[in-house]
Amino acid sequence: MDKQFWTVKYWGSMVMPKINRCKALLFIALCMFVTAAKAQVSKPPESTLIPFTAEFVAFRHGSEVGTASLQLNKKNGQQYELRYKSEVSKFFFSDNREEISTYTESSNNQLIPLTYAYKRTGTGPNKQLNVIFDYANNKINIDNNPPIPFEDQIDNQLFRIDISRQLSAGNRSFEYNFINYRGENRRYEIEVLNTEQLSLPYGSVEAVKVAVKRESSSRVTYGWFSPSLDYVLVRLQQFKDDEEQGDIQLTRYQPAK
Questions:
Q1: In whole angstroms, what is the distance from residue 58 CA to residue 123 CA?
Q2: pTM of the model
């Protein structure tokens, strides 16, 4: 919010009855309180997380079906790489996925995506996608398709770490416009629900539970982020039409030294 949200000119030279001055002072104090409260809600996130490695086990209906990992590395200069990998199999079905993002940060600590690569192999058709965020020309290049306008979108996975930054800053609701793994524009709304004590393969941790809301979708996703572990993602559970599709839980967390 603009710091000049409410301004009184020539206050010292104004002449008014004492009662009106009291009301004006009270109104100024109230405006300052409201402005401060709103600023606290929209507090900008701090700089990026410390590089880390997080490993997960994947469940479906209580049965273990695979593993996943999330790794953040610092590259040369001010660039970072976020890498997600999952391997799931059950009976004759298999699904292996990998996502690699590179990004940097703006002067006000906003994440700036640079490239995104997605690859899926296993049962059914194999798929892959490559995205380049071209800031110089204000466009996004998706494979060999015609470019689309750049409108401050991020890629399909940077919200996994940005949610951690937002929660650390005390923000309780925010949203993301992004390019998904199909190359489509999508939007997520994130809302903090409560704090829970979780019993995970990693151990017992307290975590902030958030809901990931999609536009016109029957899917519902919940994520848990632990303050004691740098607000890293410790659990992710997804439902479709009230049926669980998957549940990944933390087994190992190692921040970079």
A1: 18
A2: 0.80
